[in-house]
């Protein structure tokens, strides 16, 4: 066997030993690495949930505001045409609860949107002249 062949075999054997040693050290994640990832995901989830709850409250507030203004405008239009008997006095849906009456004189309407801690309310009124006053 020549010296160059012997040298090549020796180099290959050393490389194979190095690969076996380094391969066994990179077989998975340590417990600390996994815990760090779990903590990071928990923090991101907590921040995301808080933003979601805030957005849900704002959406419920806007839903209540739009619904009560629409009801008050509908009543004002019905009063102007003397057809207030066709007004729906209340709605009790899954997301929106409405109460109010449409009669001659000043009226007040209340709407609650959402359920539980995220529910929001809005109100509107119609004055004697027939003008809609949101938030009254």
Query: How many independent structural domains?
Result: 1
CATH level-four homologous superfamily name: Glycoprotein, Type 4 Pilin
Total DSSP E strands: 5
Widest sheet, order of strands = 1-2-3-4-5
Task: Report the mean per-residue pLDDT as an integer.
Answer: 78
CATH class: Alpha Beta
Throw out a few tags for this protein:
136 residues; alpha+beta; Glycoprotein, Type 4 Pilin; five-stranded antiparallel beta sheet
SSE blueprint:
Blueprint: H1 3-25, H2 31-80, E1 90-92, E2 96-100, E3 107-113, E4 120-126, E5 132-134
Antiparallel strand pairs: 1-2, 2-3, 3-4, 4-5
Description:
Helices cover 54% and strands 18% of the residues. It is of the alpha+beta class and 136 residues long. The mean pLDDT is 78. It has a five-stranded antiparallel β-sheet, with helices on one face. The protein has helices at 3-25, 31-80, and strands at 90-92, 96-100, 107-113, 120-126, 132-134. It has one domain (29-134): Glycoprotein, Type 4 Pilin (2-Layer Sandwich). The chain contains two helices and five strands; from the N terminus they run H-H-E-E-E-E-E. The protein is rod-shaped.
Brief rundown of the structure:
The chain has 2 helices and 5 strands, in the order ααβββββ. It is of the alpha+beta class and 136 residues long. The longest helix has 50 residues.
């Amino acid at each position: 066997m020549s010296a160059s062949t012997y040298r090549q075999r020796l180099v290959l054997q050393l490389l194979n030993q190095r690969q076996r040693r380094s391969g066994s050290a990179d077989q998975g994640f340590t417990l600390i690495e996994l815990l760090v990832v779990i903590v990071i995901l928990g923090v991101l989830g907590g921040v995301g949930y808080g933003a979601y709850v805030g957005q849900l409250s704002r959406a419920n507030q806007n839903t209540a505001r739009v619904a009560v203004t629409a009801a008050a405008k509908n009543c004002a239009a019905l009063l102007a045409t003397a057809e207030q008997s066709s007004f729906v006095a209340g709605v009790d849906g899954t997301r929106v609860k409405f109460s109010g009456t449409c009669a001659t004189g000043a009226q007040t309407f209340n709407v609650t949107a959402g359920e539980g801690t995220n529910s929001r309310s809005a109100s509107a009124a119609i004055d004697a002249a027939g003008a809609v006053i949101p938030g009254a």
